[in-house]
Automatic annotation (TrEMBL):
Polar residues bias locations: 54-63
Domain WW: 180-213
Name of the protein in its database record: PDZ domain-containing protein
PROSITE patterns: PDZ, WW_DOMAIN_2
Region (Disordered) location: 1-87
Record domain PDZ: where: 91-181
Superkingdom field: Eukaryota
């Protein structure tokens, strides 16, 4: 029987030496910052220079709030072929306040006759002094003078131009007018509300517009 060994020797034999691993070199961390993008090269999308429009005198006048001529927008209306008002034409004046309406519906005369015809006349404060006295449904406007025309008469040729001039006018408006005859076959009548209308018996037509106006206008 082998002799007993002291306990200290048993403990040393049980614990074998553990080899230590060599210290590893520290890991190199990669940079998380994104790489810089290549520099941008800006290129113009315009290959040819844009021509610069020179300001005309009319542009300068409009920019300053003044028209190049007293006729303003109405100066573009053609004057060729416009005839003088007939001797039976007379003048009437209407005072129009700012933003007021004259209650006039206008149209071209049938057959290319000179002047612009009043096809309808709605009562307003502005036309009250002349409605039914010197201005009627069927009145023909031959020429017109407003503060915008410098007080000078200009021929009434296109009804849209005349309507625009009357709409923009402020102050005293002077018209040279006449009275259109009712065309053959038509008769003028008055309803219970004292409104004038027109009847063509043979064609079985009835209209509130004066029949002397062109019905083919755009």
């Amino acid at each position: 029987m082998a002799p007993l060994q002291p306990a200290s020797w048993f403990n040393k034999a049980k614990k074998a030496p553990v080899a230590k691993a060599a210290p590893s070199s520290p890991k190199r961390l990669s940079s998380t910052r994104a790489s810089q993008p290549p520099p941008l090269i800006l290129q113009s999308s315009i290959e040819k220079p844009v021509p610069v429009r020179q300001r005309s005198n009319s542009d300068n006048s409009r920019a300053s709030g003044k028209d190049a001529s007293p006729l303003g927008k109405y100066e573009s209306a053609p004057t060729g072929g416009a005839s003088m008002p007939p001797p039976s034409a007379f003048e009437l004046q209407i005072i129009k306040q700012k933003d007021a309406t004259l209650g006039l519906s206008l149209g071209q005369l049938a057959g290319g006759e000179p002047g612009v015809i009043v096809t309808k006349l709605t009562p307003t404060v502005a036309n009250a002094p002349v409605k039914g006295k010197t201005l009627f449904k069927g009145s023909i406007i031959y020429s017109i003078a407003t503060p915008q025309t410098g007080g000078e008469f200009v021929p009434a040729i296109r009804f849209r131009d005349v309507a625009a001039l009357l709409r923009d006018a402020e102050g005293t408006i002077t018209l040279k007018v006449g009275r259109a005859a009712v065309p053959e076959g038509w008769s003028e009548r008055v309803d219970d509300n004292h409104e004038t209308y027109y009847v063509h018996t043979e064609k079985h037509l009835m209209t509130s517009d004066h029949p002397a106006a062109s019905f083919e206008q755009a």
